[in-house]
Amino acid sequence: MGNNGSTRASDKPSGKSSGRPSRKKPAEGVSRRALLIGGGAVVTAGTVAVLARDQVKRLWWQVPGIEKPRKPGELDYAGATWVAASEANWRRADRPDDFPIDRVIIHVTQGSFDSAVKVFQDPAHQAATHYIVGQDGRVVQMIRELDVAYQAGNRSFNERAVGIEHEGFVDRPKDLTKAMYESSARLTASICARHGIPVDRKHIIGHVEVPGTDHTDPGPHWDWDRYMELVRRAATAPPSPAPASSASAASASAKASG
Fold first, then answer.
1. How high is the pLDDT of residue 254?
2. Cα(first)–Cα(last) distance of the chain, in Å?
């Protein structure tokens, strides 16, 4: 989060208290983009038909009254525990079909693990990240990776990124523990592998590096050299997810469902 302990949500649709986008109408026919004309060659009718069919396959769930099938509590990362964020703090999407995922954004909570979970469950906060990593290495997933989290204060980056919060304060280097670095590195390596994201500093960035942000996290004490080396090691090592549960996360989950 950084600064005042909140993550900006500049891409939240206006007039929508639920944080969900308006439903798109199904495509009628083939768009101009599907008619590829160049060098005197026109796309054949058969190719156009294939493009139209593929477009319908991808957009069928956006027809009014129809939603893409989802399983409650389904995880994208096996090392996490699921605790749902408020639906006001994220936007339903179908990434990477509608928006390519090409960034991981690193945040620091400016508070405790439990307070971060609680605030992301609060609809008035209007911001959240996909994951929270604790100082003890525990991981909670609060938003599916296919959905857009209001995390960075930049709509384009929100649509293309997966966000990870880290328990602690930016001015306390002792908060950035060995267990946290290693657990987060495994998570980031897993995200990069799933979405084909290069493991480099252009694609794994801090919240402070997002254009237009006024946040400072992960702060001056975040050891980027150490972290990137850990991500590279995790990317080439056999899968070994972090512990999947914690009493704190289980308690937060119970409160949310209650």
1. 45
2. 27
